[in-house]
């Protein structure tokens, strides 16, 4: 199977943007979560669960974006 190279740069840019977006999203999520846990330590378990669910959703969206970028290479 050969990869047509006319779509390769666009797919690479899309994959890079998806990775940057996921990194920014998780960074903001965890940074704000840690600030809220420092302000209200009694809510730490609920905040941690919300942070893990949010991180999983961000990673899922990033994975779908990468798959779509790689599908564009065909």
How would a textbook summarize the main sheet? none
Taken together, the total number of domains comes to 1
How many individual β-strands? 0
Mean pLDDT: 87
How does the helix and strand content classify structurally? Answer: mainly alpha
Shape: elongated
The end-to-end span amounts to 10 Å
CATH topology: F1FO ATP Synthase
Q: What is the CATH architecture assignment?
A: Up-down Bundle
Strand content: under 5%
How does this model look, in words?
It is a single chain. This protein has a single domain, classed as F1FO ATP Synthase. 81% of the residues lie in helices and 0% in strands. It is elongated and about 55 Å long. It is built from two helices and no strands. The protein has 74 residues and is mainly α.
Short synopsis of the structure:
The protein has helices at 8-39, 44-71. The chain has 74 residues and is mostly helical.
Topology, pairings included?
Elements: H1 8-39, H2 44-71
Helix pairs in contact: 1-2
List keywords for this structure.
74 residues, mainly alpha, 2 helices
